[in-house]
Structure formats: structure tokens, C-alpha cells
């Protein structure tokens, strides 16, 4: 039996609208994640706006092309938890710890004024019930640092007012999320004294459980599984989803648990490392966009045109927020004695709204406290602040940068060229790469150069040795790509490895040589061993010799040992800049031990070098006092660094010859010996903050 053309089945099935077929929906979602941000960024708006707008267009409130399915809701909730985790993870706790009083003052005033006055305003002007009014005020009382790239561009991130804003976000976001947890429970059971006390107890249990349990467990995990890259990511994901689950069991919003987990892991996942890059990549490419798509599909664009309600709500919350955020900045300026330009930067930074505001609004909508008009109004608020916050910050920030008396030196390399010689027989190569990544600048344009020198007289089969070396270097190249840092690799065949390393440094114009050391003595060696000693003799570039007994991201404190007279060395300030950058990236407290020198003098010299960091300075009168101090105080999570000149140079002491072996016997098992640049005093002046 044959079918006629009219009876034949259709080759191409026409899908029904709205689309629910998983593959088609997923494909459209990925296209939205790609196209949305690219389009709106050309219009000067943050990428999140594009995904939300396209979600609104494609969702039930727009064209109705794509169904708001259970899968999108699930992934949206996962993305929301992921988003709040990254907010906690990326908060600058060091900025807060440097001036906690200013951060607390700004955070409490910047949240308290908009929250208290805003609650009264939205209840009176919009006719909301008290719980909805409290939650809506919490939405715009928080802030997101949308304009951070601008203050970073003008190099005013170390300004006292900017630091206060950065630290203050810890208070604004935490308080906003606590209000969310309180109001959410009150909406379900009523607002009573028992509800308030219960929420405070639940919050204390959540904070205590996560804050005191997660860091030691994470340190132990990273120490034992640092080479298993994807296990690190899975561990982190398990931690923050576990914290979110704990919050759910305590009847607290799960996003608060994820936020607290981000704070707990903050200092164990340093900026610039491969793990943070993986976390950001997975979030920015997949999880967070699904949350934004979910929010967009909840938006009903027709609500804007059916009446004035959405526009009225948007006008009230934007007007109240802007007025009260300006008043908060003015009050803090009066109390702390800031300038008008500093006030303008504080105001511009604090009116930015994105992640926290959107997260709180969505939960308020889900529990029935907010209607579609409020949800749409908050989206409009995001659009307004996405334009206003960068504009205000840029105007005030430019004036503030021009008025600064202290500026970074001209031409100081913020993205150094690093040469990383790798021995095929050495272990912990990946840890050396992670250490190198911490010295890279934010722009990360210059590559890290990895180099292996194969000795034909000892390799047996040179061709096989070269192939094995390439395999090792390819793994490091892949790890660098994950951290979005270019890594170039080279194999050299040379009878003298030191010569190959030094020639490689000259060819790539390296600013820093980073070598690993296994702490093993060899026959006839003078300091580290024949290869490292020869490198030190043949190059004047800075050479850092590292022995890493633990993953660098688990570092608790960074000790810096300064031999007497090292401050007169021509490469001293460059060395200080490198170690301060390391402490900054690790978020580790800096303890400076001056052996035979003046602690006050070194404190003054350290203050001349970026970045600004609080540090503890101590005077030690002998090398034995140094060893006793480190033996008594150094723990397994500390990292000891020494600015050590080359033998015979300024600041050299014979005790430095045995120091590496004394350090290797300490509990940390991890130390850095930084040998400063030689014979170029003019180069060192670049690192001074005073012109």
C-alpha cells in the first residue's frame, strides 16, 4: 500500500506555541544569553538588562512564544542562589577590615534612611500593606556596585570614601536579606515577637554554622585536593547549596544561606585564580542568565500600558531612593569630613541596583507580597539606575582623581611579565602557576611564560623528554586559559638549564622569574642548588624562589621578613609592591618582621607603595629572635616571605644562607625568597605613590 502526497506524514513538524519542547526552549535560552547582553552593552547598559528584557518579550507577558515552564523556574531558582553566593564571594572584606567604622557608618546610614523613611513613603503614597512596604523599602535600601569599573579606571578604589562604600555593602545586603527572611515568615505566620526572635536565632545558627564550619573544612579540602580542578568547583557548589539548604531548614530564605557561604569562602578563593574564574564562568554563562530569564518571563509588559500603576510605583521608589541615598551620603560626609567630590562618588556608587534588589523582588512576588506592577516597576528602576549610577560616579570620580595628592607612579607595570621555569621532575607545578596568577594585573594582557629546559646529557632519550615536557606545559596552558590569562610555553634543549632560563627571561623581557624549590640540599651548593644559584648570578631581574607546602589560596597570614639594610637596596620598592599585591589578592593579614631595623621606618616606606594595606610591623633584634617568633607563631596555613638580596649585595647577611632550610623546617612548610632587581635604581622609583 502506497500513501498519496496528501496522506504522507509531514517531514517537518511545526511546534505549538508557546514552545515547551526542551531542546527548542534551551536553544532559544542560549541565544537570549548571547544576544541580549551584546545588544544592550552597545547602548551603554549592563548585560543583565538585555536578558531580562528579552525574557519579557518572549514570555507569557510579551509575545508568549516560550512557555514559562517548570524547568525554567527550577533553573531560575538555582541561578538566584548562585547569584547571591557570588555577591558574598566577591565582596571586598579587606576593604571592610581596613576601616570598619567608616564602612559600618555608611552601610547603616545608607540602608537605614531609605529603609525607614522609604517604608513610610511607599505605604503612604502607594497604599501598600506594612509587610509589602517593608520589603519594597529593603529592595532599594541595598545597593550594587554597578559603577565599580569607573572608580577602578580612575584609580580611586583606595580613597577613604570609596572604601567606606565597598565595606558598607556588607551591611546593606545583609540587612536587606534579613528583612526579606523576617517579612517572608511574617507573611506566612503573622508578625509577632516570637517570629522576630525566631528569625534572629535562625540567623545566628546559620551564621555560626556556616562561618565556623566551612572555612576549616574548605582549607582541609583544598590542601588535599588542590590538583583536582573540577573537584574544587564541585566542592564549592556543594558548600553554598548546602548552606542554602540549611537556611531552608531554618525557615530562612535560601539566598541568605548562599550569601553567607560566599562570605565564608571569600578569602579562600582569591581574585585572579582559576577556581574563581570557573565559578564566574559557570555563573555568568549559564546559571545567572537563567535567573534573569526567569525574572523577565514574570514581567508583564502590558501592565505598563494598562494603567499608571507601574509608572507610579517606579517614580516613587526611584525618587525616594535617590533622595535618601543622597541624604545618607551627605550625612556621612558631614560626620567623616569628606569632600564634595567624595560625597558625589559615594552617592553615585550607592544608587546602583541589580542583584540583591532583583532577588528580593522576585521572592516578594513569589510569596504574594508584590503584584505585577511592582515587579515591572523594579525592572524600570534597574534601567534608570543602570544609567544614573555610572553617570554620577564618572562625573564626581573624575574630579576626585584630579584632586588626589597621592597618585601611583607613572608607568609602573601593573601586569608584569612572568617567566615560570618548570622542571619535568618537579611536583606542585599547578600551585606555582596559581601563585603566578596572583601577581597579574586586572587587565591580564601579558602572558605568563612557562619554560622547560631539557638537558640532553641526562634525559636519556631527548625526543621523549621533550614530548613529556610539552605534555606538562600544555596542562599549565589549559589552566591559564581557565583563569583567562594567556600562557605561552617553550621547550629548550640546553646542557646548562640556568643559561636556558636566563636567555628565556631576556627574550620575553621578564619582570619576574618564579622558580620552585624542593628544599633538598645538593653536593657543593652554595644557597639553593647549582641551577637556582647560577640564575641568581646571571640575571639582575627579580627572582622569586618558592616552596609551597600548601595551596596558596588557603594562606591565613603573610609574614614578610626584612633583613637589616634591605631598604637601601635598589629593588626594594618593587619587591614591596609584589608582596603587597600578593597579600591583597589573598586577603591575608600582613605581618612585617624587621630584623635589626626600625619598624617605624619600614611602616613609612611601605605606605609609599600601592596598594594600601593595613599591616603589623615588629622589630626583632636578632636572627634568633626571628626564628623563635616564627616557631612560636607560624601555623600550617601561613606563608613566610623574605626580601633577600643576592650574596654580596646591599642588605645581604650570612644568616640568609641557612634561612631557607630553617624556614623549610617550620610548620607552614611554605615560603618565598624574593631577590630584588639589581643595578637599576631608577626603575624602582616607578612603584612610589608620590610623584
TrEMBL record:
The keyword Transmembrane applies. Keywords: Antiport, Ion transport, Membrane, Transmembrane, Transmembrane helix, Transport. Pfam families: Na_H_Exchanger, Usp. Gene3D superfamilies: 1.20.1530.20, 3.40.50.12370. Residues 417-547 form the UspA domain. One of its GO terms (cellular component) is membrane. The chain crosses the membrane at residues 23-40, 47-66, 72-91, 103-125, 131-151, 163-183, 195-218, 230-246, 281-305, 311-332, 344-367, 373-392. One of its GO terms (molecular function) is antiporter activity. Its main location: membrane. One of its GO terms (biological process) is monoatomic ion transport. Residues 31-392 form the Cation/H+ exchanger transmembrane domain. CDD domains: USP-like. It is a multi-pass membrane protein. InterPro entries: Cation/H_exchanger_TM, Na+/solute_symporter_sf, UspA. It is found in: Membrane. PANTHER family: NA(+)_H(+) ANTIPORTER NHAS5, NAPA-TYPE SODIUM/HYDROGEN ANTIPORTER. This is Cation:proton antiporter. It comes from Haloarchaeobius amylolyticus.
Amino acid at each position: 500500500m502506497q500513501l498519496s502526497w496528501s496522506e504522507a506524514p509531514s517531514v517537518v513538524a511545526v511546534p505549538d506555541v508557546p514552545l515547551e519542547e526542551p531542546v527548542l526552549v534551551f536553544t532559544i535560552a542560549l541565544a537570549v544569553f548571547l544576544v541580549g547582553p551584546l545588544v544592550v552593552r552597545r547602548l551603554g547598559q549592563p548585560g543583565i538588562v538585555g536578558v531580562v528584557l528579552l525574557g519579557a518579550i518572549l514570555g507569557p507577558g510579551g509575545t508568549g512564544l516560550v512557555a514559562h515552564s517548570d524547568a525554567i523556574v527550577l533553573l531560575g531558582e538555582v541561578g538566584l542562589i548562585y547569584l547571591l553566593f557570588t555577591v558574598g564571594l566577591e565582596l571586598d572584606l579587606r576593604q571592610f577590615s581596613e576601616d570598619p567604622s567608616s564602612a559600618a557608618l555608611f552601610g547603616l546610614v545608607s540602608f537605614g534612611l531609605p529603609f525607614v523613611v522609604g517604608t513610610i513613603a511607599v505605604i503612604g503614597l502607594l497604599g501598600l500593606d506594612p509587610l509589602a512596604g517593608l520589603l519594597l523599602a529593603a529592595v532599594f535600601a541595598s545597593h550594587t556596585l554597578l559603577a565599580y569599573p569607573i572608580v577602578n579606571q580612575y584609580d580611586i578604589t583606595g580613597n577613604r570614601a570609596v572604601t567606606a562604600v565597598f565595606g558598607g555593602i556588607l551591611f546593606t545586603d545583609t540587612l536587606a536579606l534579613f528583612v526579606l527572611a523576617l517579612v517572608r515568615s511574617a507573611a506566612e505566620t503573622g508578625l509577632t515577637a516570637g517570629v522576630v526572635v525566631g528569625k534572629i536565632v535562625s540567623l545566628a545558627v546559620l551564621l555560626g554554622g556556616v562561618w565556623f564550619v566551612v572555612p576549616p573544612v574548605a582549607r582541609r579540602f583544598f590542601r588535599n585536593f588542590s590538583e583536582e580542578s573540577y573537584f574544587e568547583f564541585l566542592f564549592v557548589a556543594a558548600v553554598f547549596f548546602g548552606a542554602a539548604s540549611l537556611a531552608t531548614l531554618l525557615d530562612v530564605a535560601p539566598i541568605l544561606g548562599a550569601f553567607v557561604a560566599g562570605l565564608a569562602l571569600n578569602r579562600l578563593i582569591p581574585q585572579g585564580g582559576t577556581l574563581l574564574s570557573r565559578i564566574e564562568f559557570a555563573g555568568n554563562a549559564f546559571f545567572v542568565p537563567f535567573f534573569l530569564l526567569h525574572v523577565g518571563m514574570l514581567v508583564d509588559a502590558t501592565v505598563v500600558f494598562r494603567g499608571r500603576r507601574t509608572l507610579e510605583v517606579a517614580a516613587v521608589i526611584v525618587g525616594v531612593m535617590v533622595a535618601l541615598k543622597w541624604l545618607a551620603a551627605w550625612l556621612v560626609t558631614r560626620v567623616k569630613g569628606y569632600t564634595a567630590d567624595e560625597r558625589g562618588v559615594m552617592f553615585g556608587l550607592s544608587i546602583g541596583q541589580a542583584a540583591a534588589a532583583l532577588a528580593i523582588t522576585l521572592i516578594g512576588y513569589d510569596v504574594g507580597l508584590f503584584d505585577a506592577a511592582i515587579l515591572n516597576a523594579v525592572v524600570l528602576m534597574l534601567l534608570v539606575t543602570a544609567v544614573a549610577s555610572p553617570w554620577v560616579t564618572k562625573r564626581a570620580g573624575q574630579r576626585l582623581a584630579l584632586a588626589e595628592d597621592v597618585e601611583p607612579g607613572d608607568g609602573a607595570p601593573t601586569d608584569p611579565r612572568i617567566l615560570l621555569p618548570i622542571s619535568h621532575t618537579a611536583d606542585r607545578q599547578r600551585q606555582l602557576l596559581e601563585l603566578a596568577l596572583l601577581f597579574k594585573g586586572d587587565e591580564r594582557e601579558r602572558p605568563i611564560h612557562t619554560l622547560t629546559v631539557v638537558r640532553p646529557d641526562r634525559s636519556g632519550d631527548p625526543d621523549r623528554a621533550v614530548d613529556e615536557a610539552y605534555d606538562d606545559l600544555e596542562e599549565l596552558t589549559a589552566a591559564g586559559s581557565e583563569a583567562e590569562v594567556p600562557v605561552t610555553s617553550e621547550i629548550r634543549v640546553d646542557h646548562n638549564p640556568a643559561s636556558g632560563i636566563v636567555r628565556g627571561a631576556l627574550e620575553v623581557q621578564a619582570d619576574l622569574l618564579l622558580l620552585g624549590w624542593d628544599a633538598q640540599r645538593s653536593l657543593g651548593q652554595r644557597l639553593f642548588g647549582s641551577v637556582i644559584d647560577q640564575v641568581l648570578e646571571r640575571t639582575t631581574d627579580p627572582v622569586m624562589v618558592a616552596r609551597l607546602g600548601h595551596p596558596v589560596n588557603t594562606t591565613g597570614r603573610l609574614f614578610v621578613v626584612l633583613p637589616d639594610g634591605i631598604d637601601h637596596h635598589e629593588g626594594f620598592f618593587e619587591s614591596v609592591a609584589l608582596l603587597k599585591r600578593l597579600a591583597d589578592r589573598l586577603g591575608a593579614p600582613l605581618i612585617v618582621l624587621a630584623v635589626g631595623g626600625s619598624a617605624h621606618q619600614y611602616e613609612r616606606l611601605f605606605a609609599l607603595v600601592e596598594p594600601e594595606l593595613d599591616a603589623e610591623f615588629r622589630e626583632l633584634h636578632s636572627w634568633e629572635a626571628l626564628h623563635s617568633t616564627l616557631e612560636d607563631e607560624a601555623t600550617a596555613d601561613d606563608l613566610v616571605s623574605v626580601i633577600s638580596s643576592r650574596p654580596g649585595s646591599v642588605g645581604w647577611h650570612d644568616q640568609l644562607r641557612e634561612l631557607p632550610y630553617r624556614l623549610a623546617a617550620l610548620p607552614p612548610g611554605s615560603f618565598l625568597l624574593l631577590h630584588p632587581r639589581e643595578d637599576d635604581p631608577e626603575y624602582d622609583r616607578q612603584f612610589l605613590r608620590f610623584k
